[in-house]
Amino acid sequence: MPPKKTVKKKTYLSVVLPVYNEEENIEMQYQKIRENLNAIKKTYEVIFVDDGSRDNSYSILSKIAAKDKNVKLVKFRRNFGQTAAMAAGIDYSEGEIIVFMDSDLQNDPSDIKTVLEKIEEGYDVVSGWRKFRKDKMISRKIPSKIANRLIAKVSGVPLHDLGCSLKGYRAEVLKKVRLYGEMHRFIPIHASWVGAKIIEIPVKHHARQFGKSKYGIQRTLKVLLDLITVKFMSSYATKPIYLYGGVALGVFLLSIMSLAGTILMKYFKGMNMTGNPLLMLSSILFLLSVIMILMGIQAEILIRIYHETEGKELYYVKETANIKEKN
């Protein structure tokens, strides 16, 4: 009799961790993840994506991958950013469920079990909420709270903490999402567009023990700019004339008001209509700001078309470990 073919058991869970200069945290984070995943007793893989670290992070990860075949390792040629690292994690994952978390020990691997339980209840996206966040108040917590409230209001997805890296997804939902720029934090919003069932759960959060944070208040400003793109893509991507027409109407009404004011100033104060510099300056500045916003939106659309039609990669891989070559 011919020997029976061994069928590889399908991977249940993929845990993806972007890494950038976290040499002091990686080993401890890996040990905690392994302990928690072994307790769950499901097939799993842990994917570390080294986003061009300049310290010994990759050397430590290579040793871990050599000892544990459940650990996959992807090394970028340079730093491409967290969105690219997460996209690589999605591309190289084989799990039915994908969980993202940070590699700096601030997310707690014990919360993975709760995430999986919620997905098994029927949810497509489980978003972590750092309800008792252990970060600096002025530079991190307050800007984050303002940004999250604004995002929830604009997007219509009522989440308290979109910036929390600990999130779980059904792979079938994530595989349909194309990531660009710094849009990883808006994945739950993208998922909601295709009808994904979303829930938010409180998760543990620890203060950073080692290394330096890669985030600052400037990150909040970038989030707000990205929010403009998200709002446009959700509301006007298929009907941009509504936006352009609305802006054109607003500018037209403003011009009418300005003209009326100029006429009144001419009638009551005898000012020359064509020589009013304040009116001219305010009109130019306003129109310039409108043009710049529209140009920014058009640029976002064009870059998406460029990525899709040219097949340009979001990241470039230098080497991998425990990963089969992609077809």
Describe the structure.
The chain is of the alpha/beta class. It folds into 2 domains: 13-215 and 314-321, Spore Coat Polysaccharide Biosynthesis Protein SpsA, Chain A; 240-310. The protein has 10 helices and 8 strands. The protein has helices at 26-40, 57-67, 82-92, 112-120, 137-155, 171-174, 187-193, 217-235, 240-269, 277-310; strands at 13-19, 44-50, 71-76, 97-100, 125-129, 167-170, 198-202, 317-321. An 8-stranded mixed beta sheet has the order 7-5-6-4-1-2-3-8, sandwiched between helices. Strand 2 (44-50), helix 2 and strand 3 (71-76) form a beta-alpha-beta unit. The mean pLDDT is 81.
Summarize the structure.
The protein has 327 residues and is of the alpha/beta class. 49% of the residues lie in helices and 13% in strands. It has an eight-stranded mixed β-sheet, sandwiched between helices.
